[in-house]
From TrEMBL:
Keyword Phosphoprotein in annotation: yes
Record-level Gene Ontology MF annotations: histidine phosphotransfer kinase activity; phosphorelay sensor kinase activity
Catalytic activity as recorded in UniProt: ATP + protein L-histidine = ADP + protein N-phospho-L-histidine
Ranges where the Response regulatory domain occurs: 10-128
GO annotation, cellular component aspect: plasma membrane
Top-level enzyme category: transferase
InterPro entries per record: CheY-like_superfamily, HATPase_C_sf, HATPase_dom, His_kinase_dom, HisK_dim/P_dom, HisK_dim/P_sf, Sig_transdc_His_kin-like_C, Sig_transdc_resp-reg_receiver
SMART domains given in the database record: HATPase_c (SM00387), HisKA (SM00388), REC (SM00448)
PANTHER family linked to this entry: OSMOSENSING HISTIDINE PROTEIN KINASE SLN1, TWO-COMPONENT HISTIDINE PROTEIN KINASE
Annotated EC: 2.7.13.3
Chain positions with 4-aspartylphosphate modification: 60
Species: Chitinophaga polysaccharea
Name of this chain's protein: histidine kinase
Length: 367
């Protein structure tokens, strides 16, 4: 696998004495570093506003016209520069009150002149590691947000395309339900009632999906969700065959969360467990454990199981396994399950024994 080149750390050196700038530049030169210099507070502010990628400012405190404290204060008040880290460099003002003022103005550290070359390099190297870790995290978050947006668009297309034919089916079912032959047959009438109830519930779900994809993350509804009731609704909606039983173990919680997302997670897991069960008597068990910040849920089945080599692969987009002649899935469901869980900081994993069944686990944030 090709290794990516580390992100360049841009360091702005600010001092009114040219010789100090040259000395500091010599100390801090290194691979994947770019050094920029400014000889006054005013020039430092202009440089910081021109460059979008400054990671660290080494800022002299005592300068004519505008001292380092004032420069730091102005940087902190500007949205474009407020997150730039600052290390103050000073020959005087070593008293605690001056050091604390520096931290209040936004400094992450303090260095005293004359600078010790080893200490200076060590402190900047520590910051550099933190800077690169933060940059990698920001890139990972941005990539995840990109994938989430793609997922939302995919959901919208699917939901939109399903809604029209489903509305037509509901209208046709309503006409059939009004037929005298149905009305005069109690068993058929009850079956039609169940089918109409399920299709109307499915329509509501699709409408909710469409609403969800129209809203930003900040606008999505957070509500109290009774997980036991949610599982009961899904168990009814998914129409499991008579030989497959869905049960819950223990007491499931009431969570303050996004109901649609949690519903999608359980629906993917339960529908897969129903679809691929190969036993005469199928059993799907749902339970969980309170882990503090997160609740650990599991969906256990007694189906065909998954080979150890495939337990990671099944969560990838469009990955499909050989199901011994059974109908293959799209390879999307478990990937959506994984994305939805990881979107709110959780994680997914599976434990499986071929021939005996699988247990899918996921951590879901409690509030």
């Amino acid at each position: 696998m090709k290794q990516l080149k580390p992100k360049t750390l841009t360091i702005l050196l600010v001092d009114d004495k040219p010789e100090n700038l040259v000395s500091l530049e010599h100390m801090l030169e290194g691979e994947n570093r770019e050094i920029i210099k400014a000889n006054s507070g005013n020039e430092a502010l202009k440089v910081a506003l021109r460059h979008n990628d400054i990671g660290l400012i080494m800022l002299d405190v005592q300068m004519p016209d505008m001292d380092g404290y004032e420069v730091a204060r102005l940087l902190q008040t500007n949205p474009k520069t407020k997150d730039i880290s600052i290390i103050f460099v000073t020959a005087i003002n070593k008293d605690e009150q001056f050091v604390m003022r520096g931290f209040r103005e936004g400094a992450i550290d303090y260095l005293s002149k004359p600078l010790d070359i080893n200490v200076t390099r060590a402190k900047v190297s520590v910051f550099e590691k933190l800077y690169r870790s933060q940059s990698a995290l920001k890139e990972a978050i941005a990539e995840k947000e990109k994938i989430n947006k793609q997922l939302e668009r995919f959901m919208y297309v699917v939901a939109h395309d399903l809604k029209s034919p489903l509305s037509g089916a509901i209208g046709l079912l309503a006409l059939i339900n009004d037929d005298e032959r149905i009305q005069n047959a109690p068993d058929l009438k009850e079956y039609m009632k169940i089918v109409l109830g399920a299709t109307n519930h499915l329509t509501e779900m699709i409408t909710s999906m469409l609403e969800y994809t129209r809203q930003s993350d900040m606008e999505q509804t957070i509500e109290d969700v009774n997980v036991h009731e949610l599982i009961a609704q899904l168990s009814h909606l998914l129409f499991p065959p008579a030989h497959i039983h869905i049960v819950t173990e223990g007491t499931l919680p009431v969570l303050e969360t996004n109901k649609l997302k949690l519903q999608q997670v359980f629906q993917n897991l339960i529908s897969n467990a129903i679809k691929y069960n190969d036993k005469k008597e199928g059993l799907i068990t749902i339970g969980g454990t309170d882990k503090g910040e997160y609740y650990e849920f599991y969906v256990k089945d007694n189906g065909p199981g998954v080979a150890k080599r495939d337990t990671d692969r099944i969560f990838r987009l469009f990955e499909r396994l050989d199901n011994d002649g059974k109908e293959e899935g799209s390879g999307i469901g478990l990937n959506i399950f994984k994305l939805l869980v990881e979107e709110q900081g959780g994680k997914v994993w599976v434990e499986s024994q071929p021939g005996e069944g699988s247990t899918f686990y996921f951590l879901w944030r409690q509030s």
